[in-house]
């Protein structure tokens, strides 16, 4: 990790296309401006973590998928058995 000290209106360059500028320094925090290409995703860390947690909670776990698959296969087998019984009658 690189730690730098910057004052108001001073910038940091990352590669040739990303500029981070200190806009305001206050007791409750620092305001920064980020100038980057549109294809570069910029998210506050807490929002990125929340987004990851939401995606994980929406993704079904292996056990849920396996359970659904077994239920569907059982349902199909049951219908096939019922069809055979009706054909025999």
Automatic annotation (TrEMBL):
<dbReference type="GO" id="GO:0045947">
    <property type="term" value="P:negative regulation of translational initiation"/>
</dbReference>
<dbReference type="InterPro" id="IPR036107">
    <property type="entry name" value="CsrA_sf"/>
</dbReference>
<dbReference type="GO" id="GO:0048027">
    <property type="term" value="F:mRNA 5'-UTR binding"/>
</dbReference>
<dbReference type="GO" id="GO:0005829">
    <property type="term" value="C:cytosol"/>
</dbReference>
<protein>
    <recommendedName>
        <fullName>Translational regulator CsrA</fullName>
    </recommendedName>
</protein>
<keyword id="KW-1005">Bacterial flagellum biogenesis</keyword>
<keyword id="KW-0810">Translation regulation</keyword>
<dbReference type="InterPro" id="IPR003751">
    <property type="entry name" value="CsrA"/>
</dbReference>
<dbReference type="GO" id="GO:1902208">
    <property type="term" value="P:regulation of bacterial-type flagellum assembly"/>
</dbReference>
<dbReference type="GO" id="GO:0044781">
    <property type="term" value="P:bacterial-type flagellum organization"/>
</dbReference>
<dbReference type="GO" id="GO:0006402">
    <property type="term" value="P:mRNA catabolic process"/>
</dbReference>
<comment type="similarity">
    <text>Belongs to the CsrA/RsmA family.</text>
</comment>
<keyword id="KW-0694">RNA-binding</keyword>
<keyword id="KW-0678">Repressor</keyword>
<keyword id="KW-0963">Cytoplasm</keyword>
<comment type="subunit">
    <text>Homodimer; the beta-strands of each monomer intercalate to form a hydrophobic core, while the alpha-helices form wings that extend away from the core.</text>
</comment>
<comment type="function">
    <text>A translational regulator that binds mRNA to regulate translation initiation and/or mRNA stability. Usually binds in the 5'-UTR at or near the Shine-Dalgarno sequence preventing ribosome-binding, thus repressing translation. Its main target seems to be the major flagellin gene, while its function is anatagonized by FliW.</text>
</comment>
<dbReference type="Pfam" id="PF02599">
    <property type="entry name" value="CsrA"/>
</dbReference>
<dbReference type="GO" id="GO:0006109">
    <property type="term" value="P:regulation of carbohydrate metabolic process"/>
</dbReference>
């Amino acid at each position: 990790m690189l730690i730098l000290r910057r004052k108001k209106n001073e910038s940091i360059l990352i590669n040739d296309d990303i500029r981070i500028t200190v806009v305001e320094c206050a007791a409750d925090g620092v305001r920064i401006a980020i100038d980057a290409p549109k294809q570069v995703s910029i998210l506050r860390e807490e929002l990125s973590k929340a987004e990851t947690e939401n995606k994980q909670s929406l993704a079904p776990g292996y056990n849920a998928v396996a359970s659904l698959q077994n239920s569907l296969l059982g349902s199909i087998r049951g219908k096939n058995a019922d069809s055979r019984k009706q054909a025999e009658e």
